[in-house]
Amino acid sequence: MLAAYASKDLSPVEVTEAMLSRIERVNPIINAFHYVQADTALDAARASESRWANGKPQGLLDGVPTAIKDVLMMKGLPIYRGSAANNAEELGPAESNAPCVERLIEHGAIILGKTTMCDHGMLASGYSSQFGTTRNPWNTSRNCGGSSSGSAAAVAAGIGPVTIGTDIVGSIRNPASFCGLTGHKPSYGRVPCYPQTSPSVCAGPIARDVTDAALLLNVLCLPDARDVSALKYEDVDYTAKLDGSLRGLRIGVLGGLGFGAPLQNAVRERFSAAVDVFAAAGAELVELTPPFDANDADCAERFYQVRSLAELEQLPPGIQARSPVINAWTEAARSYTAAMHYEDYLGTQALRQRLLEVINGFDFLILPTMPVLPYAADNPGLDDGDTFAPWSNTFPFNLTQQPAISVPCGWVENNLPVGLQIVGQRYDDVGVLCAARSFEIASGLPIRPIPEELDLS
């Protein structure tokens, strides 16, 4: 797109008009956007067109259409966090832009609107009590994942090439896997976040391929003094670091971590084929025993229940019930004591320590991003009702603060994608992106065209 702007084969106005037309046609089906700012986007596109005509583009993304996840502050607009319990009139509009939103504007990106998300960012699903169901563009009877549900569904449906996701338990990687996209959870602190609410939360790119994800990361990781937990800024061009090889890399292979949903056969087959790609490319592969037992994730689920309950309890009891799934999920936490919560915090730190020990001696770990295929579209979680189990392969790497990326590793029946997760040593975002790009090349898997006619079955 940027090359076409430079050669004047396309203009930002033409592209923005096409994106707005696409939203009008497909958003009633997939429900990726809850707010569209057509006039503002077209004004920004005209300004971008003028800059390109004068040979003076603004930054790295001038004229590139994108969208902002509901949870991210965008000046003048409310934040619902996907929940009907959060009333826009009571909350009021955001008074400033989130750091990553500010960076997009500074680099000339065209913001089409705001995308949907699940309730309170804690469901691996497109279910939302505020926005309704967001559907998977590849098969609208299936789930698009969450919590960055609308952001991933928009890119998969061809509404812009990149968006920003946020990730506290897997909310970039889960929808990227379910929607056949690339989603990178950076090292904690790599992308400045404000307000900063957790030592597990990150913002990062969702894109159609690794190169676009790396380009967006170049913008998102620029410094912002509001995040006191941010890493020291490193002037790295991630797109220039993508040349590399899998040969000689030592990689630990995990079919799962030992808890959560069992690995489905269709996912196992695609993951096994991905492992073969690494082997054929010359990587040294070591099959690892899952490091955890079935109940080891319980402390983490309780820990996050308390986090969500703390958010809910800022609201009157009757209003809390407007978010029925999260309200029911957090019910048990109402009887927890502060001491019990601290014990669960220590439990998450024990998980963190054990998992960091697993990667010792390896360049990367690889495992399925999601142990299951996309479940029914309207489900808040697994088809059996479990809402936390879908996070089993992703949330531990938020605790360890390691960079982790999900890339497509194949498709199965009913037009459903499968994602491969590549996890690196702490702070090695360059290595993770390079390994992902090398896998992308070595696998030979084509980037599928956007679904022109969405499946309505």
Can you describe this structure in just a few lines?
Pfam families: Amidase. This protein has 457 residues and is of the alpha/beta class. The chain has 15 helices and 11 strands.
CATH class: Alpha Beta
Strand pairing plus helix content: what structural class?
Answer: alpha/beta
Helix/strand order: HHEHEHHEHEHEEHEHEHHHHEHEEH
Work out the helicity level.
25-40%
In DSSP terms, counting alpha (H) and pi (I) runs of 4 or more, how many helices? Answer: 15
How much of the sequence lies in strands comes to 5-15%
CATH superfamily: Amidase signature (AS) domain
Question: Can you tell me about this structure?
Answer:
The chain has helices spanning 2-7, 12-30, 38-53, 88-91, 99-106, 149-156, 173-178, 210-220, 265-280, 298-312, 317-320, 324-329, 338-358, 395-399, 429-443, and strands at 33-36, 65-69, 110-115, 162-167, 182-185, 202-207, 250-253, 284-287, 364-368, 404-412, 416-424. The protein has a single domain, classed as Alpha-Beta Complex (Amidase signature (AS) enzymes). It has 457 residues and is α/β, with parallel strands linked by helices. The chain is built from 15 helices and eleven strands. Helix 2 runs antiparallel to helix 3 and helix 10 packs across helix 13. It is globular, with a radius of gyration of 21 Å. Strand 10 (404-412) and strand 11 form a beta hairpin.
